[in-house]
Design brief:
The chain is of the alpha/beta class and about 190 residues long. Strands 1, 2, 3, 4, 5 and 6 form a six-stranded parallel β-sheet that branches. Helix 1 crosses helix 6. It has one domain: Rossmann fold (3-Layer(aba) Sandwich), CATH 3.40.50.360. The chain is globular. It comes from Paenirhodobacter huangdaonensis. GO terms for molecular function: FMN binding; oxidoreductase activity. This is NADPH-dependent oxidoreductase.
Length: about 190
């Protein structure tokens, strides 16, 4: 079996987003830690998705939007997903929710996990993300990376704007556990999908 292919999806499109810093750190960490998996950074900015305005989910009929079709084609390439998300008003970003809504068929029967950042490490956003993933027939994994509190302010422009290496010792254990979950489920679901 070829190594499962995992998308690390950058879930914010704001011009001033912080997401690139943890996404790039996690990509590098995952690539070194798990040579049995293949990783790709997928940036929502690259897809220019309109707000969902289809007649129905692509579970029921093909999407009309060329941007949605391009997004669906891209995410269909992967065997699992790790979303990098902020927490906005106790939930995930609007751009990430819209991206999730723009597909259905492509997400199914694949694992998902999350790297969250913010005051409470995006804990509430990740819980909402897991609930949405269940409806999309993904397999949410238990472990996640939560970059919160002092760690968030140590690396964020809102605080000291330090390098991710300065907090790696605090979050590496969670990152390894997340990758272990994703690897197990990606291999199992890929084998089951044939």
């Amino acid at each position: 079996m070829t190594p499962p292919k995992i998308a690390i999806i950058i879930g914010s499109t704001r011009a001033t987003r912080f997401a690139d810093k943890p996404a790039n750190w996690f990509f590098d960490f995952a690539t070194k830690e798990r040579p049995d998996l293949s990783f790709e950074l997928v940036d929502l900015r690259d897809f220019n998705l309109p707000l969902f305005n289809e007649a129905a989910s692509n579970a029921w009929m093909p999407s009309a939007s060329p941007e949605a079709q391009a997004w669906q084609k891209k995410i269909a390439e992967f065997d699992g997903y790790i979303f990098v998300t902020a927490e906005y008003n106790h939930s995930l970003t609007g751009s990430l929710k819209n991206a999730l809504d723009q597909a259905y068929v492509e997400w199914g029967k694949k694992p998902m996990g999350a790297v969250g950042y913010g005051g409470v490490g995006a804990a509430r956003a990740i819980e909402h993300l897991r609930a949405i993933a269940v409806e999309l027939q993904m397999v949410p994994v238990r472990n996640a990376v939560h970059i919160g509190g002092g760690d968030f302010f140590a690396v964020s422009p809102l605080g000291q704007n330090g390098e991710m290496a300065s907090i790696e010792g605090h979050i590496a254990g969670s990152a390894k556990a997340l990758l272990e979950d994703i690897a197990w489920w990606a291999k199992a679901t890929k084998a089951a999908r044939g």
